[in-house]
Amino acid sequence: MARIKKILFLTPSMSKGGAETQLLKLAIYLVSAGYRVHIVSLKPINEFEGFSLPPDLQITYLQEWKYNGLVNTRKLLGICAAFKPDVVLAFMFIAILFARVLKMRFSFRLISSIRISTIQTKWKLLFRLTAMLDDVVVYNSQASKLCFESRGLARHNGVVIHNGISVPAQCERPRGQVFRWVCIAHLRWNKDYKTLFKAISLLKHRSFRVCIVGDLDKSSWPRQMIAELGIDAHVELLGFQQEAVSALKGADAFVLSSISEGMPNAILEAMAHGCPIVATDIAGIRELVQPAACGFLSAAGNERQLAARMEMMMQLSAGERIRKGQQGRAFVEQHFEDKKVMADWLRLINSPSI
């Protein structure tokens, strides 16, 4: 009888972002496939409370590192020693660096998963110097793979496994009198909400509303900027939502102003729900919107161009927007459906070449 394989996941936190959602989806799938799975969150952040999890899935949350560095280190080493993982799957930069250090002490195969196309300067040198410790690197977009390998930031053995998306059943899109945009993204540096707010201010003569779903991270500047630009009537900050995608059901279109992405889960979810897209012309987004022909792209950081693309979308007939939305949905069904993506991960985990 074959021994049950043990998989350890490392993640910076269990915030409900695109990367963490994909990690949890994969972990649940592996448990259902008979693997022993343990997730370690490097921070005590859990935004998946109330989420239905299999009883055999173990999740450990470390404490805040500022005051518990030694305790956390001992706990992490203890988990590795006791669990004895066959494979460690590390999602995102800081977790990848932790996993590389652990590999110097423990024997396991390391799959490092990069979920964005750029890396902050403070991580570059350490990331490059420890790159040889990865057995394989998984990217969620071809653009990310090209970026990291061409700059010598990762080994040239990377593979692309896209984000997996559950495509919902077709439903009639409600049509209100006010055009309703939806943006799903936490207020992080790479989402560039300032450009979106400026674009909205250029269009405030029009009747529309932008519903923003995402954690404000206790920041006061978004509300302050909205007030200063006089766009209170056009922007609704909904904050963190456990079921963020439910906001897409009543959307006329989806907008995202990011300056850096891997393969944005929010856009994939919007496309799966049949929403036409306006987003920035950056690598990870371009890979989706252009071949699907499901929307318009604008230059990153350019509020005037973003406003122009938003206006173009609002000027389309409802029928034209529905057609674009359906093209995006068909593209996701063909390339990003959950079963295909989970099968790709399973093949990699069981590959004798890593």
What does this structure look like?
- This protein is an alpha/beta fold.
- It has 2 domains: 6-164 and 337-349, Rossmann fold (3-Layer(aba) Sandwich), CATH 3.40.50.2000; 179-335, Rossmann fold.
- The chain contains 12 helices and 13 strands.
- The strands form 2 sheets. A 7-stranded parallel sheet has the order 3-2-1-4-5-6-7, sandwiched between helices. A 6-stranded parallel sheet has the order 10-9-8-11-12-13, sandwiched between helices.
- Helix 8 links the parallel strand 11 (253-256) and strand 12 (277-280).
Helix-strand blueprint:
Elements: E1 6-11, H1 18-32, E2 36-41, E3 58-61, H2 65-83, E4 87-91, H3 93-103, E5 109-114, H4 121-129, E6 136-139, H5 142-150, E7 159-160, E8 179-184, H6 193-202, E9 208-213, H7 221-229, E10 235-239, E11 253-256, H8 265-272, E12 277-280, H9 283-292, E13 295-298, H10 303-315, H11 318-335, H12 338-349
Parallel strand pairs: 1-2, 1-4, 2-3, 4-5, 5-6, 6-7, 8-9, 8-11, 9-10, 11-12, 12-13
Keywords: Membrane, Transferase, Transmembrane, Transmembrane helix
GO molecular function, one term: glycosyltransferase activity
Domain Glycosyl transferase family: 182-317
